[in-house]
């Protein structure tokens, strides 16, 4: 307590100034460094004063063993934190995770619907966005307050905020325009005037900043040919100076390496360009000793000014003080039992119900097909996605790219159907229905769940967007013989063949609903009505992309905002 920065009653800016004055250049650069868990050791954290660790990589999660529980994660993070606190000044770590729809690397955690169910286009990361409509995205920035807590009235604009120990540091990303690249190419080039960039893609960021978002991540993509990680105008002059953001800007995974070709070949240039542009913390993530050495050289040679280093470290320390890390650096063990609890799963189930969009209900206005009869004599459940939690959750679930199978704790669509139907109802499940089953069984109706495999980022790039796993044919085969509800599990609109759309009796866009498949059964069997509307335009043919509702040639299969209800034949207003 003889040091002001250790005094919890002192003003945060005074604590920052005091701590910064005590730090060596080596310690400052250490704070600007984020490393991957696999290269983190107690001695590295102590000796280099590393600022942050993350768990990531293609395998996802980067945990020491499979199906690690919340207590295992808490033990690991606390061990790392102990190493950081043994550094000369005892500056605690920030631990970074990819948790775009729940803390998906923790076994037993609740997995919420991907953002697309709460936006989508041709882009392989489209399910990470909320909508093609800027206004909808702006409304969804309330997620920041959901994670961090809501700042009190009169809280300083742009200043990072965290309400308490039950909250987590949020990251607004990816700044800026990564959803507007040419042909939807991941890490591509967004060609727009500044006015359009500001109006379409930047508009949600002031909303995040006004809620005290602590961090912003730079995009891999380019704006008019200039990489965002190298764009001082956007990162410093706009984000920090014009918009007043006072948290810290973090790079994406090896994002600065992409500033030279071959990737990372001129590391001096990559580091100096990114840091001078306004990157405060660098997600290195592996060759951190090279980063520390090179940035030290760049400062000592004058290519990166000490004032830029001090600005970056001030921002990082500001977030750490705001988050209460100096007072409470270790895990709150009282929260461990809440992971995957009933309350969380009920909330996720509600989110599923509200995200479902009913695209068709009956072959004629006079005869709606939904809701389904839960006391029907015999129901056929089929399709590649009817009993697959991995596909139901999509990418960023257990691993970065996601996998098929019962990989988490949750309820599949099949599980949910079996739970809600009557005691005398027979449920027949075949992933691929045989000709014999279709010909000899007397079914009241069929539920066919089809869709996309799990993917993330560039692995999801697709220029055809047909339903995978022969989905259109499966639907046709079943719907020609049995009254059919089709449930489409996907991160974006897919091509719906006209004859298939005509044959099915009802069609639901369920997006990537997550672990709580019960939310689907709640709605299709009539306990709740449909309230979801399309966050994106549903094209007829991929050649129509990109689509713009403001254009005269706009002719979608289903327009932005479309959605039916079970009880009302006209679209929702």
TrEMBL record:
<dbReference type="InterPro" id="IPR017853">
    <property type="entry name" value="GH"/>
</dbReference>
<dbReference type="GO" id="GO:0009251">
    <property type="term" value="P:glucan catabolic process"/>
</dbReference>
<dbReference type="GO" id="GO:0008422">
    <property type="term" value="F:beta-glucosidase activity"/>
</dbReference>
<dbReference type="InterPro" id="IPR051915">
    <property type="entry name" value="Cellulose_Degrad_GH3"/>
</dbReference>
<dbReference type="Pfam" id="PF01915">
    <property type="entry name" value="Glyco_hydro_3_C"/>
</dbReference>
<keyword id="KW-0326">Glycosidase</keyword>
<dbReference type="InterPro" id="IPR002772">
    <property type="entry name" value="Glyco_hydro_3_C"/>
</dbReference>
<protein>
    <recommendedName>
        <fullName>Beta-glucosidase</fullName>
    </recommendedName>
</protein>
<comment type="similarity">
    <text>Belongs to the glycosyl hydrolase 3 family.</text>
</comment>
<dbReference type="InterPro" id="IPR001764">
    <property type="entry name" value="Glyco_hydro_3_N"/>
</dbReference>
<dbReference type="InterPro" id="IPR036962">
    <property type="entry name" value="Glyco_hydro_3_N_sf"/>
</dbReference>
<keyword id="KW-0378">Hydrolase</keyword>
<dbReference type="InterPro" id="IPR019800">
    <property type="entry name" value="Glyco_hydro_3_AS"/>
</dbReference>
<feature type="domain" description="Glycoside hydrolase family 3 N-terminal">
    <location>
        <begin position="121"/>
        <end position="319"/>
    </location>
</feature>
<feature type="domain" description="Glycoside hydrolase family 3 C-terminal">
    <location>
        <begin position="356"/>
        <end position="565"/>
    </location>
</feature>
<dbReference type="InterPro" id="IPR036881">
    <property type="entry name" value="Glyco_hydro_3_C_sf"/>
</dbReference>
<dbReference type="Pfam" id="PF00933">
    <property type="entry name" value="Glyco_hydro_3"/>
</dbReference>
